[in-house]
Every structure is written in structure tokens, then in C-alpha cells.
Amino acid sequence: MLAGVVIALAVSAMLNTLGVAIGANLVDAAERATPDAASMGIGGGIWLLASHLIGLGLGAYAAARLSGTADGTDGSLHGLSVWATGTLFSAYLLGSVVSSAAGTAATGVSNMLGGLAQGAGNVTAMVGGEAAARTDTGTLQSVSQGVIDRAREALAATNAAPDAMNSDQRKAEIGRLVGRRVTDGQLPQPEQERLAALVAAEAGISPDEARARIQQTEQEAQQALQRAEEEARQAADTAATAAATAAYWTFAALLLGAIVAVLGARAGTRAVLARTTSYH
After folding, report:
1. Is the pLDDT confidence value at 189 over 80?
2. Contacts of 159 (CB under 8 A, 6+ apart)
3. Do 198 and 177 form a contact (C-beta atoms < 8 A)?
4. Number of neighbouring beta carbons within 10 Å of residue 23
5. Which stretches are annotated as coiled coil (predicted)?
6. How far is CA 196 from CA 117, 164, 170, in A?
7. Mean pLDDT of all residues in 218-247
8. What is the pLDDT of residues 14-54, one digit of tens each?
9. Phi, psi dihedral angles at 186 (to 5 degrees)
10. Cβ atoms of 80 and 254 closer than 8 Å
């Protein structure tokens, strides 16, 4: 049985190598006569399946022939053993290749990030030295205090008349009300009027125009959310359909491989039987 597995894998690998060579010859970038990606993909898939089936058939035939059995059931079991072992080995090999590729990519990304981090560290050190040479502690404290005072003014202006507030104060309260609208749902009527007054004062428009703008913005946001949800559902459906299709095709390929392995083994069993009969 082991010899049959080795033959099946070797024949499959040989035919796949031939397929790669043929596919590479079809690429003609200079003349722009290369088949499109869909055709190349379909052709490659058919070649891969045919290579797999031919390898299984020959391997199963060899396993049954070398076993010396003249019983059809024993021969079929040898063929199924070749199919099962070859399938598991191929799956393991494919997993190892994918894992190795992922590990290589991760190492490359890690090295790249390490180089970027080192370069960023050098740049940061240079910039930091330049900043330290040109900025003293008093200047930094002055800037920080200015930012703190500006934030304090914006937060302390809540419930003030919108016209009496500066732009930062109005934006701060608008952000607070919009945040509550998103998290809590519909705002109470007084807060809706307050938001409209703030928007009107900030944009230089009438309260009615501000209400219309707020309503339009909310409608656009709801429509955007609905579109995003619909697109997410469609993407999930597409992914599920693709996964189901791939699983069905994989099952069909495995089943076809098992059938070919059994047929090959039965042919090998008949050859053994014919040889035994001729001796008698």
C-alpha cells in the first residue's frame, strides 16, 4: 500500500509540474496574448483534478497488484487506503506550505516593522534633540496652560446663549448633544431646540434652516447605516455561498478520487487474478 501512495503522489507531482510549465508558456506579456485570469484558473483547476485522479488510479493499481491479492474486496480496500493516505498527506503538505508562507510573511513584516521602528526611533531622537534645543520649559507650560484654558472655557459655557458663546464653546456643546442623540436616541424637545439654536448660531443660518439641516443629517446618517448593514449582509451571504460551493466541489473531488482509486485497484486485482490463472 505504501508503494501505491508513493506512486500516486509522485505521478501527481510530476503532472502538476508539467501543468505549471504549460501555464507559464501560455503567459506572453510582450504580445499581450495571455489568457485571462478566469480561464487560467479554470484550466489550472481541471489540470490539478486530472493529475490527482491519474495519480490515484495508478497508485491504487500498483498497490493492488503488489499486494498479490486476487480478492476484489481486498483490492478495493487497498485502493481506498491509497486514496485516504494520499488525501491526508496532501492536506498536511498543503497546510505546511500555507503555514510556511504565513510564517515567512510574518517574519518579513516583523523585520520591516523593526526597521521602521528603528528608523522612527532615530528620527524621533533627532527631532527630540532639535526640539529640546529650541523649546524651554516655560514655553511648554505656557502652551499647555493655553490649551487647558481653552477647553475649560468650552466646557463652562453650557446653557449660555448661543450668540454669546464662541465657536469652540458652541462646537463643544453641539458635540455633547449629538453624542447623546446617538447613544440615547431621540433628544427631549428642549434639547432639540437648544441644538438647533447652537447650529444656527455656529453656521450663521436661521433656526428653521438649522432644524432642516439637522433632520437631513440624521436621515443621511440613518441611510448610511442601512446601506452599511445591507452591504454587510450581502457580503456575509456571498462568503457563505462561496464557502458552501467550495465545500461541495471539494467533496465531489474527494468522492471522485475514491471511485478512481477503487477502479484502479480492481484493475490491479484482475491483473493479479489473470496472472495466477495463467500459472495454473
Report:
1. yes
2. none
3. yes
4. 14
5. 211-245
6. 47, 15, 11
7. 88
8. 888 898 888 888 777 666 667 777 777 888 888 888 888 89
9. -65, 135
10. no
Burial of 280 (0-12, 13-18, 19+ CB in 10 A): exposed
Q: Which residue has the higher pLDDT, 271 or 135?
A: 271
Contact status, residue 45 vs residue 246, Cβ threshold 8 Å: no
As given in the structure block, the three cell numbers for residue 98 are 500555507
- Distance, in Å, from the CA atom of 155 to the CA atom of 159, rounded to the nearest integer, reads 10
- Quick check: helix, strand or coil at residue 255? helix
How many Å apart are CA 39 and CA 264, to the nearest integer? 31
Cell of 182: 446617538
Chain center to CA of 159: 49
Grid cell of 214 as nine digits: 439637522
CB atoms within 10 A of CB 157: 18
Residue 63 has pLDDT above 50, yes or no: yes
Residues 84 and 262: their CA atoms lie apart, in Å, by 11
Cα angle value 173/175/179 (rounded, 5°): 120
Q: At what angle do helices 2-26 and 37-67 cross, to 10 degrees?
A: 160
Backbone angles phi, psi at 47, to 5 degrees: -65, -40
Residue 144 pLDDT? 56
Does the pLDDT value for residue 269 go beyond 80? yes
Q: What is the pTM of this model?
A: 0.56
